[in-house]
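Q: What structure does this chain adopt?
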Amino acid sequence: MVRNMVTLELEVERQFAHAADTVWELAGDFGGLQSWLPGVLSCRVEGAGAADTGGNAVRVIAVVDGSVTRERLESLDHAARRYSYSIIEALGLDADNHYLSTFLVLPQAEGRCLVRWSARFCLPLKMPARKRKQLRDRIAGMYQYCLGSLATTLRRDHS
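A:
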């Protein structure tokens, strides 16, 4: 635990009626959020490669509310269909929150998969527990919304 901070974790999952490779082809593109996530005005990657292999890729996401989010690619494993990223800067969060998120696509029965999106981050101990829970729940809700949008895009493009 970071001093004077409390660590929170969350995980959301959604089943998809698509093969893992199909879902990964769309969602595994670190710079491709704009192709499946409404509200993203632009998404570009500066640098290249994941931090765990010496890379410096950062995606810069502009959203409809006017805010900009910057996320560093920490690891990328195409074979495992998984990537992790940290938030450098986002509305209400910055590097001091030690925000690390992992996006994972797991094959299931024939033609199906499970997407698991998790996050771990720190918030100030002085922040009321109620507010910490609200923020955690808001992030989980955002991930659920994003996965719903991914499902809609896949149904539209792969039916």
